[in-house]
Amino acid sequence: MNRLQTFQVFPAIPEPISFLETLARNLWWCWNKDAIELFRRIDPRLWAETGGNPLLFSTSVSQERLEELSKDTSFLAHQQRVKDRFEKRVCLPLPSGSPYGSKSVIGYFSMEFGIHESLPIFAGGLGMLAGDHLKAASNLGLPLAGVGLLYRQGYFKQLLDQEGWQQEQYPETDLYRLPLEKVTNGNGEDLLISIPGPSGDIRAMAWKIRIGRIPLYLLDTNSLDNPPEIREITSRLYVAEGKIRLAQEILLGIGGMRLLHALGKSPTVCHLNEGHAAFATIERIAQIMSDYAVDLGTALEIVPRSTVFTTHTPVAAGHDEFPVDLVKPYLVPYGEKLGIGVNEIISWGQPTGFDGNSPLSMFVLALRLSQFCNGVSRLHGKVARRMWTPLWPGRPEEEIPISHITNGVHLPTWISLEISQLFERYLGPDWYLSPRESEPVHRIDEIYNEELWRAHEMCRSKLVRTCREIMIRQYERRHAPSTVMDDIASVLDQDALTIAFARRFATYKRAYLLFHDPDRLDAILNSEKYPVQFIFSGKAHPKDNEAKEIIRRIIEFARRTNSRRRIIFLEDYDVHIARHLVQGADVWLNTPRRPFEACGTSGMKAAVNGVLNVSTLDGWWCEGYAENRGWRIGKGEEYSDFAYQDAIESQALYNILENDVIPCFYDRKNGGVPEKWLNMMKESMKLGFKYFSSRRMLEEYETKFYLNADRHFSDLVENSAEKARRKVAQRERLKSLWSDVRISSPSRLVSGAFRVGQTIPITAHVHLGELSPDEVDVDLFFGQIHSLDALGNSKSLPMSVQDSLGNGQYVYTCTITCEAAGRYGFTARATPRGDDWIKQTPDLLTWAE
């Protein structure tokens, strides 16, 4: 049967409870505990069976129950309380005094968004971070719009066979169970976005989901009007096949920009969450050239200065690259629009010094067209600068223009109901909305230890109960015998020390580290006095057989008779499982090989719930670790011999568990609560609350990037882009004359050894040619000598003109103060005078001869 006409029937909601429909169609409910409880109290069993999805849930509630609720004064009072908060947080205008203009739009592009488990358009940490980003933007009232793709099959569901080998399934998502709205044009017709492709136009419809105040727009090619190969583009997330993957990233970047433009929401700021969306910069250049009647050079001064690029990948091989012959057909139309050859456009995404046939790197393209670039932790920022120094030849690693903003997590989404109630009691009802400078975080210390421990024990009991339910479903599907089912129904102990390891299974995350010495692990697991249990969960990439083998080995170990009830693996790791683990575990175990973990937000989610981290010093834990709030594996060493590293750090892990973690957990005087453990829990909660929340993260993005980028855009386009045109002239003049800039080796005006506190006058002869001193900055670059040609702890000191010698030659001077003993080196350099985007131009840098 073809071209079936469809319709859907929804329940008739009585008017007194009609707000439930409004609430169900805005995902604001999913991070508000009182709203969740409003749905849950209608029918707790049915709410659980429908996966906490209000639309699916509402179609299953009987009409009689709805009529009953419409007359229930207690329920109506609860609904009114939620409605009042919803209108305040979502519907009412923001207070006046916003630093943004009336037309400001921050376009946030991401390949995946993890908002709630009922919306399966995410794979892992990147998507959950993007979802938390939107939620925090709603809380803060930022003028942000999310842009992504609507995957009909999303990421795979993980199933384990009898031997523990991962299998993948891709179930179709029922769109009518999601709070989607079709995006229409001014005539009420479906808004369609079209992009020329090598096999014909890619036509996509658009959907909108409300995330509090924030709209999330999703492009979808699964239309009967499209041929099968086009419909396939938005079928699955992270398709391995190169042609489809490229088409997805073209649709996200180019299609996403065209969608916002069609909606009258052309971004004043673009934020690329990873390089997948880098093609947005090319489309944005074309739009600005058309909208503001400027040439390519002028647009190239506007776009980078108003673009933010966040990279999450600390391994060069992890960034998408596409062969030129695949990319070229999509970019040929831009040759005419931009007035340059398509090969030149492609060169924007090719590393310096490579030939024209080198693959186009999405990272390089994004980096070349973004002034504001950041890694997602302090260590990751350092790793990224080291990785990408070749793009800025001659520039010191510490001055590579990649900064960092450490990720944060959306506290109300991830915190347990029990801990949230404590926070409401001790910190106030709107604790997660408090400005950071007035956060009542110190009041966490006032929570009674017994009260905190009872709350945590309830979370652990919920976790154990959930694990048993999941394990029973797993083994029922495999038709396990009744004897095995009886064992499964009683796995785990509600009072035992519970350690969780849950994340994407990649080899660098080293889930196998705990199993290096099976006998030692057996002894830990089977202690009668101090019982310990482990919960594992996570998916391996479908093509990663090495990671699948790690999962199989864990399953094999867990089936040993003496381990069966103390170590389990939960299949199909998702938000539902993650939520219970970060709320109910006692310890969050993380063993990545430093420095391959960019951030690792799951440990933050655990921390705010009082779960203590045991981790290598990688990602966020380098910033979060202190001995009064968790434990570290090693001291941040980096090894070239991975086998040796695994041997050393596995023994360190056993030592920490045996000598520190387990004794601390079971240290209960007179049968009371573990006082030291509880004090560490409070320190962990304060850490997550104050430093690793998405509110703090968004405030950093706003102050460091968004406000500056938004101001740049408005300044550069006003008055027919007058300022942008001036910057074009400045750049052209600098490029044409820079080859004449030369600096002689700077020299000291006094000689001999020096003492701390003495000063050293330095002079250098500089040839600027036709450039004037007002156009060039000359700095002295100095620091402690690390090798013959490298300085450590380097600094730059401005030099000033002392004398003009004519013919473009000048004498520059400055004075160094000897602040500490040691052996130092110095040289001089010239850079263009101007804003950061001009100063970081790779070719405009000259060192002393």
Q: Looking at this structure, what is the CATH superfamily of the largest domain?
A: Glycogen Phosphorylase B
- The percentage of residues in β strands lies in 15-25%
Instruction: Examine the secondary-structure arrangement and name the CATH architecture of the largest domain.
Output: 3-Layer(aba) Sandwich
Question: Which topology of the largest domain does CATH recognise?
Answer: Rossmann fold
Précis, in short:
By secondary structure, this protein is of the alpha/beta class. The protein has 4 domains: 21-91, no CATH class; 113-407 and 701-721, Rossmann fold, CATH 3.40.50.2000; 411-692, Glycogen Phosphorylase B (Rossmann fold, 3-Layer(aba) Sandwich), CATH 3.40.50; 741-847, Sandwich (Immunoglobulin-like).
